[in-house]
Amino acid sequence: MTASTVDVLLPLGLDTPYSYLVPDGLALVPGDLVTVPLGSRLMVGCVWPRRGDAQAKEVDTSKLKAVKKRLDHRALPPDLIKLIDWMADYTLAPRGMVLRMALRHEENPSPARERVGVRATGHTPERLTAARRRLLDVMSDGFVRAKTDAAREAGVSPSVVDGMVDEGALETLVLPPPPAAETPDPDHATPTLSEPQAEAAAAMVEAVKARAFSVHLLDGVTGSGKTEVYFEAVAESIRAGRQALILLPEIALTQAFLDRFTRRFGVTPAEWHSGVSTRRRGRILRGVAEGEVQVVAGARSALFLPFRDLALTIVDEEHDPAYKQEDGVAYHARDMAVVRARFSSSPIVLASATPSIETEVNARRGRYGRLALPLRFGGAKVPGLAPIDLRKEGPPRGRWIAPRLQAEIGQTLEDGGQALLFLNRRGYAPLTLCRSCGVRVKCPSCSAWLVEHRFRRRLTCHHCGYNAPVPENCPACGEKDSMVPCGPGVERLQEEVQVLFPEARSLVLSSDMTGGMERMRAELDAVAKGEVDVIVGTQLVAKGHNFPGLALVGVVDADVGLGQGDPRAAERTFQLVHQVAGRAGRGATEGRGFIQTHMPEHPVMQALVKGDRTAFYETEINAREEAHLPPYGRLASLVISANEGPAAEGHARRLAASAPRAEGVRVLGPAEAPLAVLRGRHRWRLLVRAPRGFDLSGYLRAWREVAPRPTGNTKVSIDVDPMSFM
Ligand SMILES: Nc1ncnc2c1ncn2[C@@H]1O[C@H](COP(=O)(O)OP(=O)(O)OP(=O)(O)O)[C@@H](O)[C@H]1O
Ligand SMILES: [Zn+2]
């Protein structure tokens, strides 16, 4: 008895597929989506390729349940299946949870509403009212129209259309669904490229034509026109009738991007992120699977779309930390995009003015090609940055804008330019304390201070979202009116701007302002149009914006983020400050930048001030190499959390003790995490360091085999190549 069976992977916390019987007459291949019974319910899963040894395994088919049916509208392509397997192996996340990221939109596939159209049959009824005559006139061209369109054009009610169908003068037919996205025109508005731009574009076009895996770093200074250049490669993939994926780090940015795409290609690309409606996403998904959608611009989740014929991937602002997903499956979308490009034998382009150290090292070693755009388009200069030493020329107490910066802003405004102040702190004040007893207001479920948000009149925890009204009296000593805000956030900085420049129109740009995406888009637009004089913003302003009127950038506290035991602190500071400064001087006026710092002698500040990118990379790469930090060594972080501190600590110690020995591998810790309590969970950390080229995932899997199982509510989360050390 050889009943035929298949392995079906379910989008659950499971690593291995389950076997199911295949009903007679159903032919299934890996990648097919099927509904299968699981317990008492039905679930959508994916037919999974059998791994070598599974074939031999004896299965008692009498106990197996059967596949219910195959969803015929799509299947996962082979490169996506390989990506899911690879990611599960690499991140140690259960395979089913990785699959889930590709199936999330399949759970409730909303059926497309059927659209009915009508067409004239040529038969004319004997008695015709004026309305009927008008309708027949309109329809006499023989074209098919949606019922509603026919009624509207003829200026009759829909019942007249139905009546004519009954009379046999019109026939109905089902209209094909509207396309998920219109076809971009590669020649809609071709730019005139500068010589270096043309060279870089040609190399990328060649890469698309080669139909082979390759990685290029598009390394262009801010404002060099990286977008225009990679659009040429996108155009090539459109010409070939194939598909391109453009990953963007920030959905707030997509509007400006979509506008730009539309100017170049005549239509908007398919947009993919959490802000897009479910129905629309369903349509895009199908269009991508069928190859009808040719360009997708989206957030990291777009990486799991079932492209039928992926010709090119672009990762814009590849250095952006937003590409790293930390909860659930911990993965870096840029790295996984490179993996998918390899599996689909297609080229990938990583674009940035401040490449990540990993990418820069890969380019230096020749593993990635480098396409350089060393100059701004149109001859504008990248602004210089002047240091303001806060130890010598700092602002008066309770203020954050140094006198020199204040004078420069004043001059800029007088000259009709815009100024931007950058401070990577949301809210009004990072800390609220009692003037009388010194107590600081803490989050009840995290080891973090509550941040005052004056617009919302609340104290908020930036880690868990807890919020409460600002207390009038001290919650500890009861002293009246004794609570004072300490330190600046962007809201407080704006207050200072209003005091110093009462005439100026100012605006706070921060990811947490009320009004959501719509408001943010409107505000970014207002800034670009010059309707705002002073912009006060968080890291949100460091991302790719093109503000032509921006003449001055002031970095209010360049030291935030440095020296917190984070191995990427220097890199992150450099990227942020350099990117923020890069927003200035993109239009007609030359840009200028200032950085306020307590440590102007710090190598990062020195590199920023001298505009010496090479010096920064040299110093940082050497430091990483010496310390065996990525990419010269490998890291994995294990966070052990539990409702009770001792449980977390105890398990962390047992886990550390069970670590297998391996040449060159060191397990550091356990230590209490810097963010020791998060959402009421106590956290302990282990850090694994391994030599470059070491199979860290394999090591962690072997460790997990011998490790004590977490009991009760204790949990272990693993992050291979961690970005966060909190
Ligand atoms: N060949 C070109 N023809 C016309 N305009 C161009 C051309 N290249 C670039 N530009 C314009 O120059 C400006 C800067 O280009 P773009 O935003 O692509 O730079 P970028 O390299 O992405 O900068 P950043 O890294 O700061 O985001 C844009 O307004 C763009 O339209
Ligand atoms: Zn909290």
From TrEMBL:
Keywords per UniProt: ATP-binding, DNA replication, DNA-binding, Helicase, Hydrolase, Isomerase, Metal-binding, Nucleotide-binding, Primosome, Zinc
Enzyme class: isomerase
GO molecular function, one term: 3'-5' DNA helicase activity
Any Pfam family the entry gives: Zn_ribbon_PriA
Record-annotated Helicase ATP-binding domain positions: 207-373
Details of cofactor binding: Binds 2 zinc ions per subunit.
SMART domains: DEXDc, HELICc
Positions with a binding annotation for Zn(2+) 1: 434, 437, 474, 477
EC annotation from Swiss-Prot or TrEMBL: 5.6.2.4
InterPro entries in alphabetical order: DEAD/DEAH_box_helicase_dom (IPR011545), Helicase_ATP-bd (IPR014001), Helicase_C-like (IPR001650), P-loop_NTPase (IPR027417), PriA (IPR005259), PriA_3primeBD (IPR041222), PriA_3primeBD_sf (IPR042115), PriA_C (IPR041236)
Catalytic activity: ATP + H2O = ADP + phosphate + H(+); Couples ATP hydrolysis with the unwinding of duplex DNA by translocating in the 3'-5' direction
Binding site for Zn(2+) 2: 443, 446, 461, 464
Cellular compartments per GO CC: primosome complex
Isomerase keyword on record: yes
Cofactor: Zn(2+)
Gene Ontology BP terms: DNA recombination; DNA replication initiation; DNA replication, synthesis of primer; double-strand break repair
Known function: Initiates the restart of stalled replication forks, which reloads the replicative helicase on sites other than the origin of replication. Recognizes and binds to abandoned replication forks and remodels them to uncover a helicase loading site. Promotes assembly of the primosome at these replication forks.
Assigned protein family: Belongs to the helicase family. PriA subfamily.
Quaternary structure and interacting proteins, as annotated: Component of the replication restart primosome.
HAMAP family linked to this entry: PriA (MF_00983)
Protein name: Replication restart protein PriA
The organism of origin for this protein: Azorhizobium oxalatiphilum
Organism ancestry: Bacteria, Pseudomonadati, Pseudomonadota, Alphaproteobacteria, Hyphomicrobiales
